[in-house]
Structure formats: structure tokens, C-alpha cells
Amino acid sequence: MALHRMRTIPEALEEIRALDEKTAVTPYCIRTLCKGKHVRCIYTGRKILVDLDDLLRFLNDCSFEDIQKTAELSDRSQICAN
Fold first, then answer.
1. Strand order from edge to edge, sheet including 6-8
2. Among residues 17, 67, 2, which one has the least CA distance to residue 39?
3. How far is Cα 64 from Cα 24, in angstroms, rounded to an integer?
4. Which among 64, 75, 62 is positioned nearest to 32, based on CA atoms?
5. 58 with 39: CB under 8 angstroms?
6. 18: helix, strand or coil
7. 38-74 per-position pLDDT tens digit
8. What is the pTM of this model?
9. Residue 49's beta-bridge partner residues?
10. Residue among 67, 70, 82, 26 nearest 9 (CA)
11. DSSP H or E run through 6
12. How far is CA 13 from CA 4, 6, 65, in A?
């Protein structure tokens, strides 16, 4: 049985930066994806544990149109802003 690679938002961002050092993904972006239920996560008190594989899959597989739809559904105008 394989375990899900659960990471806090800062840890997930660190893993993303290891893959792409010039990434534009921010902690706010990851948090918004979690709140919008686009990425599997678990809320544990004040922490959010993100399924790293699901986050990477979303970032790799989503199209520009998917990101725009996600941003429109968000309570803010941009989902992944610098």
C-alpha cells in the first residue's frame, strides 16, 4: 500500500522549487487550490496538508482554460499571482 506524500504548503512549495527554481507558484496559489477543492488536502488545526502528487498532477495537466475557470470561481481575480 503506497502512502500519499502529504506536505505542508511551505514544504510543497519547496518541492516545486526543487523541480523548477523559477516557479511562479506561491503559497497563496497552493492555499487557493486547496480551498477551491482542486487539490486533495487535509485541514489539521491551523495547517493544511497537501497531497503533493495531486498538486503536481494539477499543475502539469491543467490547461490555461482550466486555470482561468478556477480563477473566475475564486473569490479573488487571480489564483496564482506573483
1. 6-8, 47-51, 41-44
2. 67
3. 14
4. 75
5. yes
6. helix
7. 999 999 999 999 999 999 999 988 766 666 666 665 5
8. 0.77
9. 8, 42
10. 26
11. strand 6-8
12. 17, 12, 23
The C-alpha cell at 43 is 485541514
C-alpha cell at 21: 527554481
Q: Which of residues 27 and 68 earns the better pLDDT score?
A: 27
Identify whether the C-beta of residue 82 lies closer than 8 Å to the C-beta of residue 23. no
* 68 alpha-carbon distance from chain centroid: 15
Please tell me the distance from the alpha carbon of residue 51 to that of residue 64, in angstroms, as a whole number.
22
Cα gap 8→71, rounded to integer Å = 22
**Could you tell me which residue, 77 or 64, shows the higher pLDDT?**
64
| Domain residue spans of the chain | 6-73
- Per-position DSSP letters for 22-82, written without gaps between them: T----HHHHHHHHHTTSS-EEEETTEEEEEHHHHHHHHHH--HHHHHHHHHHSSSS-SS--
